[in-house]
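User: Could you write out the 3D structure of this protein bound to protoporphyrin IX containing FE? I've included everything you need below.
Assistant: Certainly. Input first, then the structure.
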Amino acid sequence: MNLEDIDLTDLDLFAEGFPDEVFTRLRREAPVWWHPPTEHTPDEVGFWVVSTHRGAMAVAADAELFSSERAPGAGGGGTIIQDLPYGFAPGVLLNMMDDPRHHRIRRLATPAVAPKALAAMEVELKERAGRIVDAIADRGACDFLSDVAVELPLQAVAALMGVPDADRHDLMTWSNTTLDYEGRELGETNEAVAEAAGSMAEYGSELIAEKRKVPGDDIISAVTRGLIEDDLGGSRPLTDLELLMFFNLLVVAGSETTRNSIALGMVALIEHPDQLEALRHDRSLMPTAVEEILRWTSATLYNRRTTTRPTELGGQAIEVGAKVTLWWPSANRDESVFDEPFRFDIRRRVNPHLAFGYRTHFCMGANLARMEIRVILDELLDRLEDFELTGPVERVRTNKHAGVCRVPMGFKRRRQA
Ligand code: HEM
């Protein structure tokens, strides 16, 4: 394949998973590569592709030059390839906002995901994980994705946001619909997606109003109650739109990525049975195993930035207003950083993966996601054994997420030792 034939906006390229051979070539031959527009490219505008670990860190570390919001004065921007209108998501959604406002809002929410708050959630999550595994234990087979991996992240994010148990099912249904990419091309939406997004927004607004009246110790109450500095040196509460976007971001960012990491992490363990058994017998391996699962699965495939002035990167001159994409799974297979990057190794000691991004926009849910992966694996290994894949793992056709839609799995309830 010639470099000119690579089309990262053709979703078919991602239908069987991340195209590692394409990115191995890019890392070697063109670590900062100009992707010309193709028939699939939104906005008909090309973009830069950064595929190495060093390049991704350099861009993510300079959030002023590489904006998550937009180029100065531009009408659109954001962190996906297609421009989103400014004021709709860019400039309003935390991950598509630049400092200083980004930092002000992030600071309000940080205590809710700090180690102390998460430690308090762990007992509840462990009980929930136990119930999820118990519900399938005697069935001998399940779709690991929908029966296990989907459940815990949504329950966790609902608990984090103080969503009552009775409403969690609705939240799950809407969020699953908005995340269903089947049959959609880049930038497209459909009626079911729009309807689910509308219901979720309505629910989010009601939840925010409720938290204003009766605050709890959840993350939505914290941001609803908090004040941020305004640009004139005074302070103000977040607007309704900012709050609603924060709610949406947590539901989407918190559930899909973690579910895919759990699902593909389990697939990796089943495909490496010696490592699965090693982990079962020695849980002190759990911390390195979780990091390796995060590196291996790299659930977010890319994020975009926009240059705020002309610059140079990897020997390439880049114009102001250019789209620059960072490909996390490629950075996480960079052979100059990881020893044998294509080997799944739960004992890997040096593992500076970028699955959660880097610096300014580093994932706020990183420690929650780590805890979820650990807790669900513990429950699975305690209660079940003889795991096997009983059919093909089905993927979602998207270049944004390491998306899976079916993981047929067989197993037995574990005989008590
Ligand atoms: C395995 C699971 C997860 C992965 C792989 C992941 C990945 C990422 C990545 C790559 C970014 C950086 C985006 C950028 O630089 O533009 C990010 C940001 C973010 N993530 Fe996660 N995420 C995960 C789980 C979660 C969870 C559980 C939550 C919430 C409870 C969450 C909430 C967020 C938020 C709010 C941001 C934006 C932070 C900011 O802009 O300052 N994520 N995540």
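The pocket of protoporphyrin IX containing FE is lined by residues 60, 68, 79, 94-95, 106, 157, 160, 249-250, 253-254, 257-258, 261, 294, 299-300, 303, 328, 355-357, 361, 363-365, 368-369 (CB under 6 Å).
User: Perfect, thank you.
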